[in-house]
């Protein structure tokens, strides 16, 4: 199968008029799009030439309930026909936003209770940093404004979200970032303590981390890490923000990633799986006590809001999506199929010399490639896998040479086996 053999007209128009997000510009100009997708069905995507591939990344770690779910189209249509949009600014509201906020309070851990809606993960992160800083202003400690994040982290591309992103190439893309962002070694509570001490806890508003680092290469923390982080944040009076943009809504085999560690953050950032990508939506869920402080201490207007905060159609889609995740036991399926996927990686590790460490938590997985200091091989394996019918992603930041995976939570055993077989053959072909 020739993956570049796509519809010529679309390909030329794409090259000429479409600047792609997070894309290799020269390659795009030379070859045009590798796939122009026209259809989705379960774990499969189909392109203009009728090529069918397994979406081993749930597109961008987000299509949790799989492609082609007509129920979500139905939910969107019904809401749009009733009320496509109305504002949530000031004291206006709408039923899907209210019901979704209440549903999130029910399903998120601990005392997380109140949601501020956004249109995606980057906006959720920027919102969390601004709300954290505003919180300390309200508490009479305006000097607490630094945000600490982890090396190798990814928090999005809005100015604040990029500034918090630990993957340096994303920060180096532009030459001036938001001030007061600092980084600490990932996976190490001791390193966080040292960073807090060095920066001065009285100047720090919040620490943010992903429960499992995604774009940075699927790095899974030790069991005690977040407990220690929670203790440090309590001790130094620092807010804990967790970025569950990828890990939320069942991805890791629990409803939310932090449930693996028994820790509740003060704020939780959501997006992606909240609608499984069927509409643009994100949110920040605040703990009851933070919400109470906002209520008791604010006397002006909360001057932060997006036009689409609480978009009725997006919220209606999210509600239906969450219902599907619950009714079809997709969190449990992610846990079970995640184990199958990891077993598959371990089998490939035994078969192929090129494979180093393999990792997984639920349906987030990684396979390290042993390029031994030479050019990374993961990008070539990704291309080879795509031509054989599997989409996955390479991570080559920070001298890594890693393949990452995040198939839809609806995947079944046979589809996992198909994924593993294609991956094995792709690695074999590159060896
Ligand atoms: N946070 C994490 C952990 C992410 O993985 C992403 C996107 O990949 C974002 C934030 C940014 O979300 P968005 O692309 O919806 O702005």
Word description of this protein:
The chain starts with 7 loop residues before the first helix and ends with a helix. The chain has 2 domains: 35-65 and 329-430, Alpha-Beta Complex (Aspartate Aminotransferase, domain 1); 70-327, Aspartate Aminotransferase, domain 2 (3-Layer(aba) Sandwich), CATH 3.40.640.10. The chain has 15 helices and 17 strands. It has helices spanning 8-17, 25-31, 58-61, 70-83, 95-107, 121-138, 159-164, 168-172, 189-199, 225-236, 288-297, 312-327, 330-351, 378-388, 413-430, and strands at residues 37-41, 44-47, 52-55, 112-118, 146-150, 181-184, 204-209, 212-213, 219-220, 239-243, 267-270, 282-287, 355-361, 364-369, 390-391, 393-395, 402-405. 41% of the residues lie in helices and 18% in strands. The chain has 431 residues and is of the alpha/beta class. The structure holds pyridoxal-5'-phosphate. Residues 60, 120-122, 125, 154-156, 210, 214-215, 243, 245-246, 271 line the site of pyridoxal-5'-phosphate. Pyridoxal-5'-phosphate binds next to helix 6.
């Amino acid at each position: 199968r020739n993956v570049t053999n796509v519809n010529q007209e679309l390909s030329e128009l794409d090259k000429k008029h479409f600047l792609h997000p997070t894309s290799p510009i020269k390659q795009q100009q030379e070859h045009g799009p590798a796939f122009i997708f026209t259809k989705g069905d379960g774990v499969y995507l189909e392109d203009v030439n009728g090529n069918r591939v397994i979406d081993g990344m749930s597109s961008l770690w987000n299509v949790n309930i799989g492609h082609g779910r007509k129920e979500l189209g139905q939910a969107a249509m019904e809401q749009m026909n009733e009320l496509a949009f109305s504002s949530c600014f000031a004291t206006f509201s709408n039923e899907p936003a209210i019901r979704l906020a209440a549903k999130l309070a029910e399903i998120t851990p601990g005392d997380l209770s109140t949601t501020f809606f956004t249109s995606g993960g980057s906006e959720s992160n920027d919102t969390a940093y601004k709300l954290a800083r505003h919180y300390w202003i309200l508490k009479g400690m305006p000097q607490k404004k630094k945000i600490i994040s982890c090396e190798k982290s990814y928090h999005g591309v809005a100015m604040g979200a990029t500034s918090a992103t630990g993957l340096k190439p994303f920060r180096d893309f532009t030459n001036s970032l938001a001030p007061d962002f600092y980084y600490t070694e990932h996976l190490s509570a001791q390193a966080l303590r040292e960073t807090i001490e060095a920066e001065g806890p009285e100047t720090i508003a919040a620490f943010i981390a992903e429960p499992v680092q995604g774009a940075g290469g699927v790095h899974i923390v030790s069991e005690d890490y977040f407990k220690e982080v929670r203790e440090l944040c309590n001790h130094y009076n620092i807010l804990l923000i967790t970025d569950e943009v990828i890990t939320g809504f069942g991805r890791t085999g629990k409803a939310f990633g932090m449930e693996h560690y028994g820790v509740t953050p003060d704020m939780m950032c959501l997006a992606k799986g909240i609608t499984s990508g069927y509409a643009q939506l994100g949110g920040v869920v605040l703990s009851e006590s933070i919400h109470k402080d906002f209520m008791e201490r604010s006397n002006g207007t909360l001057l932060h809001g997006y036009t689409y905060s609480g978009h009725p159609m997006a919220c209606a889609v999210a509600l239906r999506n969450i219902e599907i995740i619950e009714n079809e036991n997709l969190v449990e399926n992610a846990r079970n199929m995640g184990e199958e996927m990891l077993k598959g990686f371990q089998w490939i590790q035994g078969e192929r010399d090129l494979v180093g460490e393999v990792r997984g938590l639920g349906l987030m997985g990684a396979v390290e490639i042993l390029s031994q200091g030479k050019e990374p091989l993961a990008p070539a394996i990704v291309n080879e896998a795509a031509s054989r019918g599997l989409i996955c992603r390479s991570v080559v930041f920070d001298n890594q040479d890693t393949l990452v995976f995040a198939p839809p939570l609806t995947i079944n055993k046979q589809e996992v086996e198909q994924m593993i077989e294609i991956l094995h053959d792709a690695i074999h072909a590159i060896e």
